[in-house]
Write a structure and sequence with these properties.
Layout (H helix, E strand, L loop, with lengths): L2 E6 L6 H12 L3 E7 L1 H6 L8 H9 L6 E5 L5 H7 L4 E5 L14 E5 L7 H12 L1
Parallel strand pairs: 1-2, 1-4, 2-3, 4-5
Bound molecules: [cytidine-5'-phosphate] glycerylphosphoric acid ester.
Length: about 130
Protein backbone atom coordinates (compact mmCIF):
# COMPACT_ATOMS: atom_id res chain seq x y z
CA UNK A 1 0.00 0.00 0.00
CA UNK A 2 1.43 3.32 -1.16
CA UNK A 3 0.93 5.90 1.59
CA UNK A 4 0.78 9.66 0.97
CA UNK A 5 1.18 12.45 3.56
CA UNK A 6 0.34 16.14 3.42
CA UNK A 7 0.05 19.02 5.91
CA UNK A 8 -2.11 22.08 6.26
CA UNK A 9 -4.55 24.23 8.19
CA UNK A 10 -7.49 23.56 5.82
CA UNK A 11 -9.61 26.36 7.26
CA UNK A 12 -12.84 27.40 5.50
CA UNK A 13 -12.41 24.36 3.27
CA UNK A 14 -12.62 25.24 -0.43
CA UNK A 15 -12.15 23.72 -3.87
CA UNK A 16 -8.42 24.51 -3.91
CA UNK A 17 -8.00 22.29 -0.85
CA UNK A 18 -10.13 19.56 -2.42
CA UNK A 19 -8.06 19.71 -5.65
CA UNK A 20 -4.92 19.23 -3.55
CA UNK A 21 -6.35 16.38 -1.49
CA UNK A 22 -7.73 14.59 -4.57
CA UNK A 23 -4.40 14.80 -6.46
CA UNK A 24 -2.46 13.77 -3.34
CA UNK A 25 -4.69 10.71 -2.87
CA UNK A 26 -4.25 9.81 -6.56
CA UNK A 27 -0.49 9.50 -5.97
CA UNK A 28 -1.06 6.43 -3.77
CA UNK A 29 -3.59 4.23 -2.03
CA UNK A 30 -3.91 5.92 1.36
CA UNK A 31 -3.78 9.59 2.30
CA UNK A 32 -2.74 10.84 5.74
CA UNK A 33 -3.42 14.53 6.41
CA UNK A 34 -1.61 16.28 9.25
CA UNK A 35 -3.83 19.20 10.21
CA UNK A 36 -2.36 22.15 12.06
CA UNK A 37 -3.56 22.43 15.66
CA UNK A 38 -4.82 25.81 16.88
CA UNK A 39 -1.62 26.18 18.90
CA UNK A 40 0.58 25.49 15.84
CA UNK A 41 -1.50 27.89 13.76
CA UNK A 42 -0.56 30.58 16.29
CA UNK A 43 3.09 29.73 15.57
CA UNK A 44 2.31 30.00 11.83
CA UNK A 45 0.63 33.35 12.57
CA UNK A 46 -2.62 31.93 11.24
CA UNK A 47 -5.95 32.32 13.03
CA UNK A 48 -8.33 29.68 11.73
CA UNK A 49 -12.07 30.41 11.77
CA UNK A 50 -12.89 26.75 12.60
CA UNK A 51 -11.09 25.23 15.57
CA UNK A 52 -8.93 22.12 15.30
CA UNK A 53 -11.64 19.62 16.25
CA UNK A 54 -14.05 20.97 13.64
CA UNK A 55 -11.41 21.28 10.91
CA UNK A 56 -10.42 17.66 11.69
CA UNK A 57 -14.03 16.46 11.53
CA UNK A 58 -14.52 18.18 8.17
CA UNK A 59 -11.34 16.65 6.72
CA UNK A 60 -12.31 13.16 7.96
CA UNK A 61 -15.55 13.47 5.97
CA UNK A 62 -13.68 13.88 2.67
CA UNK A 63 -13.58 10.76 0.50
CA UNK A 64 -9.91 11.34 -0.45
CA UNK A 65 -8.74 11.43 3.18
CA UNK A 66 -8.03 8.14 4.99
CA UNK A 67 -6.51 9.41 8.23
CA UNK A 68 -6.09 12.74 10.00
CA UNK A 69 -3.30 13.39 12.52
CA UNK A 70 -2.34 16.60 14.37
CA UNK A 71 0.42 18.89 13.18
CA UNK A 72 1.90 20.36 16.36
CA UNK A 73 5.22 21.77 15.15
CA UNK A 74 7.61 22.26 12.19
CA UNK A 75 9.89 19.47 13.40
CA UNK A 76 7.61 16.43 13.28
CA UNK A 77 7.64 15.63 9.55
CA UNK A 78 10.56 13.15 9.50
CA UNK A 79 9.07 11.21 12.40
CA UNK A 80 5.63 11.32 10.78
CA UNK A 81 7.07 9.89 7.55
CA UNK A 82 8.84 7.12 9.48
CA UNK A 83 6.05 6.33 11.96
CA UNK A 84 3.33 6.19 9.28
CA UNK A 85 5.47 4.36 6.67
CA UNK A 86 4.94 7.19 4.20
CA UNK A 87 6.03 6.75 0.56
CA UNK A 88 5.12 10.17 -0.81
CA UNK A 89 5.08 13.61 0.84
CA UNK A 90 2.91 16.16 -1.00
CA UNK A 91 2.42 19.92 -0.66
CA UNK A 92 1.14 22.70 -2.86
CA UNK A 93 3.92 24.39 -4.82
CA UNK A 94 3.73 27.56 -2.72
CA UNK A 95 5.99 25.40 -0.53
CA UNK A 96 8.27 24.40 -3.44
CA UNK A 97 11.66 23.32 -2.09
CA UNK A 98 10.83 23.96 1.58
CA UNK A 99 10.61 20.26 2.47
CA UNK A 100 13.26 18.76 0.18
CA UNK A 101 15.07 17.43 3.28
CA UNK A 102 12.36 14.75 3.32
CA UNK A 103 13.79 13.30 0.08
CA UNK A 104 16.10 11.19 2.27
CA UNK A 105 13.00 9.43 3.61
CA UNK A 106 10.33 9.45 0.88
CA UNK A 107 9.34 10.93 -2.46
CA UNK A 108 8.61 14.68 -2.27
CA UNK A 109 6.04 16.16 -4.65
CA UNK A 110 4.87 19.77 -4.92
CA UNK A 111 1.58 20.12 -6.78
CA UNK A 112 0.47 23.31 -8.57
CA UNK A 113 -1.75 25.44 -6.35
CA UNK A 114 -5.30 26.02 -7.54
CA UNK A 115 -5.40 29.58 -8.85
CA UNK A 116 -8.24 31.92 -7.90
CA UNK A 117 -9.21 30.66 -4.46
CA UNK A 118 -7.76 30.88 -0.96
CA UNK A 119 -9.05 31.14 2.58
CA UNK A 120 -7.65 34.67 2.74
CA UNK A 121 -9.55 35.62 -0.43
CA UNK A 122 -12.79 34.25 1.00
CA UNK A 123 -12.34 36.21 4.24
CA UNK A 124 -11.49 39.45 2.42
CA UNK A 125 -14.41 39.23 -0.01
CA UNK A 126 -16.89 38.33 2.71
CA UNK A 127 -15.73 41.35 4.71
CA UNK A 128 -16.42 43.64 1.74
CA UNK A 129 -19.86 42.19 1.00
CA UNK A 130 -20.79 42.21 4.70
CA UNK A 131 -20.50 46.02 4.88
N1 LIG B 1 -3.66 24.87 -1.60
C1 LIG B 1 -3.79 24.74 -2.98
N2 LIG B 1 -4.49 25.66 -3.67
C2 LIG B 1 -5.08 26.71 -3.03
C3 LIG B 1 -4.98 26.83 -1.63
C4 LIG B 1 -4.26 25.89 -0.92
O1 LIG B 1 -3.24 23.79 -3.58
N3 LIG B 1 -5.77 27.62 -3.78
C5 LIG B 1 -2.89 23.86 -0.88
C6 LIG B 1 -1.66 24.43 -0.18
O2 LIG B 1 -0.57 24.56 -1.10
C7 LIG B 1 -1.40 23.37 0.89
C8 LIG B 1 -2.80 22.86 1.22
O3 LIG B 1 -3.67 23.29 0.14
O4 LIG B 1 -0.63 22.30 0.33
C9 LIG B 1 -3.32 23.40 2.54
O5 LIG B 1 -3.25 24.83 2.47
P1 LIG B 1 -3.24 25.63 3.88
O6 LIG B 1 -4.35 25.13 4.74
O7 LIG B 1 -3.12 27.08 3.56
O8 LIG B 1 -1.89 25.08 4.49
P2 LIG B 1 -0.63 25.93 5.04
O9 LIG B 1 -1.10 26.98 5.97
O10 LIG B 1 0.16 26.28 3.85
O11 LIG B 1 0.09 24.85 5.98
O12 LIG B 1 3.72 22.27 7.55
C10 LIG B 1 3.05 22.78 6.41
C11 LIG B 1 1.98 23.76 6.80
O13 LIG B 1 1.13 23.24 7.82
C12 LIG B 1 1.16 24.10 5.55
Amino acid sequence: MKKVLTYGTFDLLHWGHINLLRRARELGDYLVVAISTDEFNAIKNKKAYHNYENRKMILEAIRYVDEVIPENNWEQKINDVKNHDIDVFVMGDDWEGEFDFLKDYCEVTYLPRTVGISTTKIKKELLVTAK
